[in-house]
Structures are given as C-alpha cells and as structure tokens.
Design brief:
alpha+beta, five-stranded antiparallel sheet, THEM6_lcsJ_thioesterase, HotDog_dom_sf, Protein THEM6
C-alpha cells in the first residue's frame, strides 16, 4: 500500500508541476479570504522568499521564476479587485498576451521580496499591468515587468461596467506603455509579412 502510494506520488510529481497547482489554490484561498478592494487602480502586494527550488547555477533566482511569481501576483490582484469574479460571471476569460521583464539586480537565496502589481490602463481588448519585484532588505526594485492581459469573449470596459456598475474612465497611457504597445504591433506586423511571404506561391 505504502509502496503504491509512494510510486503514485513520484509519478505525479514527475509528470505534473504539483507545487504550481498547490500554490495557485493557496493564493486563491488567501485572496478570497482577504479584504475586497473596489479601486481598480489600487496597487496590490504579495510577499515571497527565494528558496532552493528557485535558484539557478549562479545561486540567484532563475529568470523563469520571476514570470511564475508574477502569475501568482496577478491572480491575487484580480481576485482582490473583483475582476476574477466579473470574468467568471460574464463567462469570459483572461490570458497573458505579452510580457516584458527587465532585471536590475539579482534576488539571492533566502532573500525576501514583495511583488507590487497594479493596472495601469486598458484598451478595447486588454488590461496593461505593471509588476515590480522589490527587495525587503533595502526596497530596491530588482525587476520590473509589463504585461498585457487579454480579455476573451468580453472587453475590459464590459468587465468594469459589471464590476463598478458605472463606466470607468481609463487613465492616460504612460509613455513607456505606449512605446511597448508600438513595439508589439511592429513585431506582429513583421511576423504577418513573413507568413504572407512564405505562403504566397508567387514568392516561391
């Protein structure tokens, strides 16, 4: 019995990222139990610490772990401000459409940090979210991430109208966000041109 259970657990951890799902459930429960925030632009904070499974050969947090931690922080943000509930109520969904992260200083083993997440603005298709990794040692911003959270089968305006029972005006787009959007559009157009070129018989 114990051998079968051990083999099943080993197989489960080998085939699935079990810790990811356990942490996601934990974040959902903690955020759901916390105080609800109706200010859609209010910054939300979660705390973290760099552990052994987070580090790479250099002894600091692996680059991919930053993106993983941002996932949990955005989940907490959307539960606290009510967007998670609005998405479910409207039978909609949100997926990450683009992200850019800039590393400024390493987070080392056992270093404590916090992730501050906030919605900066939105358009007809997506919310734009900023997330910062801040060392609790000296409040230095170790990394900053900008992401586009696409809304499927609805729109940011509809979600906010449902949530706030009124039309919510979008703040002005920060200069760096507009430049980032322009870059993404240029990249998308480039890939479309390459696709059209490769599928056009006249170009063969």
């Amino acid at each position: 019995m114990w051998l079968a259970a051990s083999l099943f657990s080993a197989l489960l951890f080998a085939l699935f990222d079990v810790w990811y799902f356990l942490r996601a459930v934990l974040h959902i429960l903690l955020a759901a139990a916390g105080a609800k925030v109706r200010d859609i632009l209010r910054e939300q904070t979660i705390n973290g610490i760099v552990l052994f499974h987070d580090i790479d050969f250099m002894g600091h947090m692996n680059n991919s772990r930053y993106l993983r931690e941002c996932d949990f922080a955005r989940l907490s943000l959307f539960i606290h401000n009510g967007l998670f509930k609005a998405v479910r109520s409207l039978n909609s969904a949100m997926v990450l459409g683009a992200s850019t992260i800039r590393y400024r200083r390493s987070l080392n083993l056992f270093e404590q940090f916090r992730i501050q997440s906030k919605i900066l603005c939105w358009d007809e298709k997506a919310f734009y979210v900023e997330q910062e990794f801040i060392s609790r040692r000296d409040n230095f911003v170790c990394a900053t991430m900008l992401c586009r959270q696409n809304v499927l089968r609805s729109s940011p305006d509809k979600l906010l109208q449902f949530l706030c029972k009124r039309k919510v005006e979008c703040p002005d787009f920060p200069e760096e966000v507009q430049s980032w959007i322009n870059y993404n559009m240029a990249s998308s157009n480039k890939l479309k041109r390459e696709r059209d070129y490769n599928t056009d018989p006249k170009q063969q």
